[in-house]
Amino acid sequence: MRTVGATICYVCLATLLAATAVGETAAETEVPLASERGFRQMTERLRIALVFASYATYAPTRADQLLHTQQVINLLVGERGDGYDAGVSPGALFPSLAAVLWPDGVIPGLIPDARRLKHALALLDRLDPSRRDQAGRVVSTLTRYLDLALDAMHVAGRARRYDDAYEQILRGYAFLLAAYGPAAEPTPGGLGALRQLLGGALEASDRR
């Protein structure tokens, strides 16, 4: 049975999923990270991790805290990562979410993807050497933000008291927000800053 938080989550994610699904189809598998479409999908997965982190922040019970904290962990480490719990997988709880963002059935994990993205950008011909070095530094900072968010969520999961977990969840949320760094208010190591830096260098997804 879903907890109160999970039920609220299901209702609130409907709007988010409707926006995410625009332009995406189940056929979009194996999308290169260094592409417009791959970058967009990674951004959306990070945005959904922020949504789950916000639900953990406002969770009415410790059980809800644990549920949403684990959902964030799952999105960060991916299905093949340490600490992944298939029992509270976002895809298991919300199949429509899975159909949009991991249509091949495997949650890739934001942290592994951030590490892969650094390598992918190093091979991007359209990026001049100076911007390639800058992009590498931004991705390193992005990965660090995600690692720190994961650490905070793990500590929150092990906490014995609601209030102790709450403090760690807030830390995790702050690091996720820094990693997201929307283009309107980019943070030094966020996806928004990286998108601005890359400009038109990302491969157009329809030219693969």
Describe what this molecule looks like in 3D:
The protein is mostly helical. It has one domain. The chain has nine helices and no strands. It has helices at 4-21, 36-57, 62-77, 90-93, 95-101, 110-122, 129-158, 162-180, 191-198. α1 (4-21) packs parallel to α5, α2 packs antiparallel against α3 (62-77) and α6 (110-122) runs antiparallel to α7 (129-158). It is globular and about 50 Å long.
Which key phrases capture this entry?
208 residues, single chain, 66% helix, mainly alpha
Annotation, overall tally of beta strands: 0
Mean pLDDT figure = 80
Q: Rounded to an integer, what's the Rg over CA atoms?
A: 17 Å
- Which oligomeric state applies? single chain
Helix content: 55-70%
The SS-based structural class is mainly alpha
Number of domains: 1
The separation of the N and C termini measures 43 Å
Weakly predicted, low-confidence segments: 17-30
| Percent range for β-strand residues | under 5%
Query: Topology as H/E string?
Result: HHHHHHHHH
The main pleated sheet reads as: none
| Tally of helical runs | 9
Short description:
By secondary structure, this protein is mostly helical. It has helices at residues 4-21, 36-57, 62-77, 90-93, 95-101, 110-122, 129-158, 162-180, 191-198. The radius of gyration is 17 Å and the shape is globular.
